[in-house]
Amino acid sequence: MLRAGTLNRRVRVETMGTARNALNEPIKAWALHAAMWVSIKTMSGKQYVTADRETHEAAVSIRARYRNDITPTMRIVLGAIDTGGAVDYSKATVYEILAVLPDEARREHVDFACSTGARA
Length: 120
Hints:
single chain; 120 residues; mainly beta
């Protein structure tokens, strides 16, 4: 059984959608798909210099209660502040979902293999 105390981070799951800009033109934008409690474990990380710029990257495992509506085309955002009309991502960490790994045997949890930072 997945204990509630281990799910200690509130995140947004976002999907790419279509919105309208000030000129009423359609643009691609991230939209909220779900908000949920998760646990986050950093599996590995590295820091390197490329094109005279310091870059970092981390492999992360994120665990949530079982659900089957999240796909690798979505992203997980930790620390975004929803101000009612716009979302402030200035202090947020964005995780790219690489794989969705559900617990099909007991259907208690789903793990998301994610990465954050620049990709080499």
